[in-house]
Design brief:
By secondary structure, the protein is of the alpha/beta class. It has one domain. About 45% of the residues lie in helices and about 10% in strands. Strands 5-2-1-6-8-7 form a 6-stranded mixed beta sheet. A two-stranded antiparallel ribbon has the order 3-4. The longest helix is centred in the first third of the chain and has 28 residues. The relative contact order is 0.13.
């Protein structure tokens, strides 16, 4: 009886872990390096498209955007949600983020066709592009919710919110993957800080994005609807958060996910309410938080490679 049980346990162990190891070993260092370079080149191509668009519509600003990236927005606009820091936005435009993401995800064992859940804020359009460029190279299946609202110097210019940027980049065949739905973002994931004019601008952006709009009645409802949209967290390889979305990171007076990088376990202190990322961590799904970029860059040497 004991021998049969041992054989059964060995059989189950082999069945569960061997396929994952084979998938994780698919990327050798040469392949990863090539994908990282291509992802960074995709970011540069995206910047070229967005800069040309801004030139065409007299939105280009060489002072605010000396690198001609097309992703540096205004300090304030009617769809601005919170104060943002210009240096962090400039740092996010370095193409090296895309290469780092390729290497990180490959090292964590991603495989072609892996399902990845993504939350994107309009606050960091450059990082949004880097994430999509990396996942595109790795052949991941992406289920992404992105927001219209943006903090200072993000995708906050009239007619060029993040969902509109993404649509342009997909139409120009720079990106092949992207968002599946949008929210307004901002307070309560409903843009509560905007006046009527700002809300009208945001709704026009949603319409131009050609994506379905998730309409919550409260922050808790926004979290519930996002989780319902993603489905079972255990179906995903990982969850990637870009920016400081309340629905993604949870509510409360103090931000609990107060560093950038990987999280593997639930935080001891709950949010008010806890967010989507808490739910993924509760189901043992690793989460990559792309926020607090200066510290993350210093720790990982992302832009100095």
């Amino acid at each position: 009886m004991i021998n049969r049980l041992a054989i059964l346990l060995l059989t189950v162990t082999v069945y569960v872990f061997v396929p994952q190891k084979v998938e994780a070993d698919e990327w050798d260092s040469t392949a990863v390096a090539a994908m990282a370079r291509r992802a960074e080149e995709t970011v540069r191509r995206a910047y070229g498209v967005l800069w040309d668009f801004k030139l065409q519509f007299d939105l280009a600003d060489t002072v605010r955007d000396p690198g001609h990236t097309g992703v540096m927005g205004e300090e304030y606009s009617p769809v601005t949600t919170t104060i943002g820091y210009e240096y962090a936005k400039e740092l996010s435009t370095k193409p090296g983020w895309a290469g780092w993401l390729v290497r990180e995800l490959a090292e964590h064992g991603i495989w072609k066709g892996a399902d990845v859940a993504v939350s994107m804020s309009g606050s960091f359009p450059a990082l949004n592009i880097a994430v999509l460029a990396a996942l595109q190279e790795l052949g991941a299946d992406v289920n992404c919710i992105s927001s219209v609202g943006a903090s200072s110097y993000g995708a906050n210019e009239p007619g060029l919110s993040w969902p509109e940027m993404e649509r342009l980049l997909r139409e120009e065949h720079v990106l092949k993957i992207g968002s599946s739905a949008v929210t307004l973002g901002g307070t309560g994931d409903r843009g509560l800080e905007w006046n009527d004019y700002g809300m009208d601008m945001a709704m026009r952006s949603v319409k131009r994005s050609l994506l379905p709009l998730i309409k919550p009645t409260s922050l808790r409802d926004a979290i519930r609807k996002r989780i319902r949209f993603y489905g079972n967290p255990r179906d995903y390889f990982c969850y990637i958060n870009v920016g400081g979305s309340q629905a993604s990171l949870g509510g409360g007076a103090r931000m609990r996910f107060d560093r950038g990088g990987w999280y593997y376990e639930p935080l001891p202190r709950k949010g008010d309410p806890s967010g989507v990322m808490d739910r993924f961590l509760a189901d043992d799904v690793p989460c990559l938080n792309l926020l607090f970029l200066e510290r993350l860059d210093k720790r990982e040497g992302i832009t100095s490679r």
